[in-house]
Amino acid sequence: MKFARINGVVLHYADSGPGTAPALVFSNSLGTDFRIWDRLLERIGAPFRVVRYDKRGHGLSEAPDAPYKMEEHVGDLAGLLDHLGVQSAIVCGLSVGGIIAQGLSAARPELVRALILCDTAHKIGPPEMWDDRIAQARAGGIEALAETILQRWFSEDLRGNRPDELMGWRNMLVRTPLAGYIGTSAAIRDSDMTEAAQAVQVPTLCVVGSEDGSTPPDLVRTLAGLIPGGRFVVIEGAGHLPCIERPDELAALINDFFQETGLV
What we know:
It is globular, with a radius of gyration of 17 Å. The two termini are about 30 Å apart. It is built from 12 helices and 8 strands. The protein is about 45% helix and about 20% strand. The chain has helices spanning about 40, 70-85, 95-105, 125-140, 145-155, 155-160, 165-175, 180-190, 195-200, 215-225, 240-245, 245-260, and strands spanning about 1-5, 10-15, 25, 50-55, 90-95, 110-120, 205-210, 230-235. The protein has about 260 residues and is an alpha/beta fold. A hairpin with a 2-residue loop joins strand 1 (about 1-5) and strand 2.
């Protein structure tokens, strides 16, 4: 385990692979930690320097008091990459991680040589939805939201046929620090990356699960349409977390993207 104090917050991260290899950076979703990428990494073909991290308020990272701003999440990732000496990276973000990736591309474009945006959007949900979710979490903890969240996260197939695995992911969700969940929910509520998406100047792949209940395919298609040259692909049978449910399909899409764009 590795830790660094970035912008006054201790972040937990992993940094693996050859230091001379191209950098591949992962930013994960609300209520998860960086273990969600494990299955995908086993299937990525090219050698990379891989950086994963728990954003503030998640996993083993420090959880300041809520609310958070998206600029803080973006600044944390930029600061971590500076700390590690990563000067340019392919950035893969899922859900809020995809918003962070878009924000990084706008704030520090020199750090981003390509984007992989999974199950995310330029804007996720109306503010009222997030206000309601924050109120429920404050009143009853993340447990009060867990069943609804899991329905959005995973396909009916996983929920019905892989109960032990479902329980494991549920445990990860409900053990997220409450301040981190509420704080990041507020950051998502207040974010609109429309202009950032329209300004992207690097190769970009937008991917979504066909059964995603959080950022449905039509929403992700809209994001891809905002990005100049944005590519859009649906992974059939996956929910909001295709890196967990369909790692083979997601890895194949990413490997093809690397080859077609000359990134490796």
